[in-house]
Each structure stands twice: as structure tokens, then as C-alpha cells.
Amino acid sequence: MTTTLYGIRNCDTCRKALRWLEAAGLSVTFHDFRRDGVPAGRLQEWLRTLGVDEVLNRRSATWRKLDAAQKQRAEEDPAAMLREHPNLIRRPVLEHGDTLCTGFRESAWREILGKDAP
User: What CATH number does residue 12 fall under?
Assistant: First the structure.
């Protein structure tokens, strides 16, 4: 089963999630939004499957720095805004087979990945 972690390499939460996955013995592909960009097709799937509220991180420092017009644009066309500002994507994004989730919550990840997780 393929496991891909999407995020930003220097994000503390992404680094913690990578260490946790490696400790679980999983082979993980890491996709860095800054280096590799935001995959448009995957982003559309995340928005469709999880919804804007789960993918768009309105608690981020980047969100707080946006002006009202930019925030309105994010509500009207979230995919375009998330491609333009990948820091607005709730990180990390975990794809494990057909399972998809955002954020690093050990309890949820244990359930998704099964008993072999640390």
C-alpha cells in the first residue's frame, strides 16, 4: 500500500509525522509543497473528499496576514488560493491507500494505519 505525506519539509508537525511514520516501519514518499508544488489534481480530490473546512487552515499565520479581499477569494476559489499559498493547506496531508486525512493526530493515524503503528 502506498503512503504519501504532503507538507513542508521544515514544518515541525510534518517532521514529527514523518518520524512517527518511519517508526511505524512504513515506507513513505514525502511531497514538499515548496519544492514540488501543490499537485492540482490531488488538491481538487482533497477538497472534494474532505471539504474546504478540513483543507483550508484558517488558523494559520498566513491566513491571518491575508487581507479581506484575499480571504474572500479563498472562500470563492479555494483551490487557486491554496496553490498560490500552500501554507494555507492544513498540514500534513496523509494519503494511505484510499484513506485521506489532514493534520497529525496520533489516535486517528493509529486507526488508519492499523496496529503496526507505534
Answer: 3.40.30.10
Helix extents (H) in 1-118: 12-23, 33-36, 40-50, 52-55, 61-65, 68-76, 78-84, 106-113
Q: Residue 104 is placed in which grid cell? A: 497529525
88: in domain: yes
pTM exceeding 0.85: yes
State yes or no: is 101 an active-site residue.
no
Residue 24: give the domain boundaries: 3-113
Among the options 5, 11, 43, 94, which is catalytic?
11
Question: 29 lies in a domain?
Answer: yes
Place of cell 494511505: 96
Whether 118 is in a domain gets the answer: no
- CB-based contact 5:21 (threshold 8 Å): yes
Per residue in 18-54, pLDDT tens? Answer: 999 998 888 899 999 999 999 989 999 999 999 999 9
The C-alpha atoms of residue 37 and residue 20 are separated, in whole angstroms, by 24
